[in-house]
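User: Predict the structure for this protein chain, please.
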Amino acid sequence: MNPLPRPLFVVLCLALMWQEPAAAETAGVFATDSDAPINIEADKMSLFRSGAQAELLGNAALAQGPLSLTAREVAVFYGTTAPRRLTRITAAEDVHIISENGREVFGDAAVYLVSAEEMTVTGNVRVINTKDTDADTLTGVRLIINLRNGTSRIFGAPKGTKNNDKSGRQKGGQSGGRARIQLKPGGAR
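Assistant: Here is the predicted structure, written as structure tokens:
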């Protein structure tokens, strides 16, 4: 089979990206074992009187299966009826998610909905591959990760949102309101 001529390949890639301008998708890189225990550490932990919430402050770190998350602040929420089950985890300030396969996510905040097995990272979102410096880089303002199958979708800010600074650039140094990917020729996909 002959490879596509480079100009045709570029046009084909642009046509595919044009159909869904606000989102890009990555495949199977953030899956975890939702039945695995979640190990939690922090400089300070507080359990609220109701028992439905715990607060983790300072170097908070969580790990479940092949994924880990660090942030300055994490809140853990439980249901209010017995048996109390973990329902949601929120993280703020310097959110960093690491997958054992080398993919890493950086963002301003994250919410993990346990029953939906879904994590949403917001703010200045960046997805990189630390095991391959030639791999693609994704950027946007919102990343939704399906932890069941590991797929993720990254979104840009809709036009007219307040995610721009005074110069009109998207907060975090991105221009415009679109999700972006930097493709590196010859890099891993």
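Residues 6-19 form the longest helix (14 residues).
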